[in-house]
Amino acid sequence: MSNNKANDVLHSTQIVIEQALRRLGYDQDMIDLLKEPLRLLTVRIPVRMDDGTTKVFTGYRSQHNDAVGPTKGGVRFHPDVTENEVKALSIWMSLKCGIADLPYGGGKGGVICDPRNMSFREIERLSRGYVRAVSQIVGPNKDIPAPDVMTNSQIMAWMMDEYSRIREFDSPGFITGKPLVLGGSKGRETATARGVVIMIQEALRIKQIEMKDARIVIQGFGNAGSYLAKFMHEAGARVIGISDVNGALYNEEGLDIEYLLDRRDSFGNVTNLFSQTITNDQLLELDCDVLVPAAIENQITDQNASLIRASIVVEAANGPTTLEATKILSDRGVLLIPDVLASSGGVIVSYFEWVQNNQGYYWDEQEVDDKLMLMMIRGFNQVYEIHRTRKVDMRLAAYMAGVRKLAEAVRFRGWV
Ligand SMILES: NC(=O)C1=CN([C@@H]2O[C@H](COP(=O)(O)OP(=O)(O)OC[C@H]3O[C@@H](n4cnc5c(N)ncnc54)[C@H](O)[C@@H]3O)[C@@H](O)[C@H]2O)C=CC1
Ligand SMILES: O=C(O)CCC(=O)C(=O)O
């Protein structure tokens, strides 16, 4: 396979979706339906910049499938957003919702932009413009956005406010990941990391490694990566490497996580404050027990998979490992906890947020964390059991677990 195809996240997702559906006994018609989103909206968003000029941004909203319920998934602000990436991300959301047994299908949005080079007000105008542009196809019972790369609770607040203005109705359930004062859920900000911690605990148990002996390396120090570093440090593990887009930090004795958390900026950058850094490539190849990619796609490839020294890889990021690399890692006996399972903590607590918005009754953080733990462990057991009994790698097992309910819903509805 050419490198471009290998790194095309949509193409590789479609390969595994097809394998999963075939193993579950479905025919080509089901594969044809589920390997593409039902809907993809491309929008152009004019934004008045602070210097008085108007810049036109391109954005997307992809809705993979709504047979189970409304579609759900984050919105990404990043210069490398592409149509295929957003489509793949929406399919992964369907799989996450399927594994966690949420009443949703998968959706995802993205805008090609670089918020690191935009002012606060420009980001607000872009966020509001995006909602105006996609407002016809989203809504609390249609498609519910949330945060993802370089979007946060402030952006969710602007988006909710814009949607409420358009609908002339206060609509907290339109979006999740909101600030607490606007109907956000306790525990949503930390949910992705909390879910990853639970997966690491399960993986360590299987590999018979004690938490206190575990050496952890985390790529990415944003929402997912930084809270993960904090929780692993608090759990007694040694976080020996972290990174951001600019580079990586390494200390065999363990990094000063509290200091790093204090100094990171709102985009998850911290390594620029240090002179002694290593590269992201070197970080991935460090001798450690658990490697957690928590940044972007295609970080572990056929070029470096045989050099990974961790015995456990837990994918907090979406799509960090290519299919070729998945095979190399599984052949080498590395326990890989795939993204659609490992990073589902975010959408699970988003679901809790939506339920609380619908009820108008709010839970305490302990209740959120306890329910999250139950759902993550149930998901893990399901996937691990398929991996063990059907003798398939963990990614295929997760796809089989994730697509099962969706395919049944499609069948009951009589769509194929
Ligand atoms: N925020 C959430 O609730 C969820 C996030 N995820 C996934 O987790 C990953 C990270 O998301 P967030 O932490 O929310 O994003 P973020 O924007 O808060 O942080 C991203 C981090 O990755 C770093 N990074 C960016 N490009 C990089 C590169 N080429 N090499 C190394 N580091 C790089 C950034 O410097 C930053 O530290 C993404 O794949 C996202 O889709 C998955 C589930 C939920
Ligand atoms: O919280 C959500 O609804 C979606 C989170 C997300 O975008 C993801 O899991 O990739």
UniProtKB/TrEMBL annotation:
GO molecular-function terms, A-Z: glutamate dehydrogenase (NAD+) activity; nucleotide binding
For this protein, the record's InterPro entries field holds:
Aminoacid_DH-like_N_sf (IPR046346), Glu/Leu/Phe/Val/Trp_DH (IPR006095), Glu/Leu/Phe/Val/Trp_DH_C (IPR006096), Glu/Leu/Phe/Val/Trp_DH_dimer (IPR006097), Glu/Leu/Phe/Val_DH_AS (IPR033524), Glu_DH (IPR014362), NAD(P)-bd_dom_sf (IPR036291), NAD_bind_Glu_DH (IPR033922)
Q: Which SMART domains match?
A: ELFV_dehydrog
Q: Name one Pfam family in it.
A: ELFV_dehydrog_N
State the Gene3D superfamilies in the record.
Answer: Leucine Dehydrogenase, chain A, domain 1, NAD(P)-binding Rossmann-like Domain
The residues the record assigns to binding substrate are K72, K96, S350
Task: Enumerate the UniProt keywords alphabetically.
Answer: NAD, Nucleotide-binding, Oxidoreductase
| Residues the entry annotates as binding NAD(+) | T192, N223
Residues at the site labelled Important for catalysis? D148
PROSITE patterns given for it?
GLFV_DEHYDROGENASE (PS00074)
Q: Which GO terms describe its biological process?
A: L-glutamate catabolic process
- Domain (Glutamate/phenylalanine/leucine/valine/L-tryptophan dehydrogenase C-terminal) spans 185-414
Active site (record annotation): K108 (proton donor)
Q: So what family is this one in?
A: Belongs to the Glu/Leu/Phe/Val dehydrogenases family.
**What PANTHER family does the record point to?**
GLUTAMATE DEHYDROGENASE (PTHR11606), GLUTAMATE DEHYDROGENASE 1, MITOCHONDRIAL (PTHR11606:SF13)
Q: Per its record, how is this protein called by name?
A: Glutamate dehydrogenase
Organism of this sequence: Paenibacillus endophyticus
Provide the organism lineage as a comma list: Bacteria, Bacillati, Bacillota, Bacilli, Bacillales
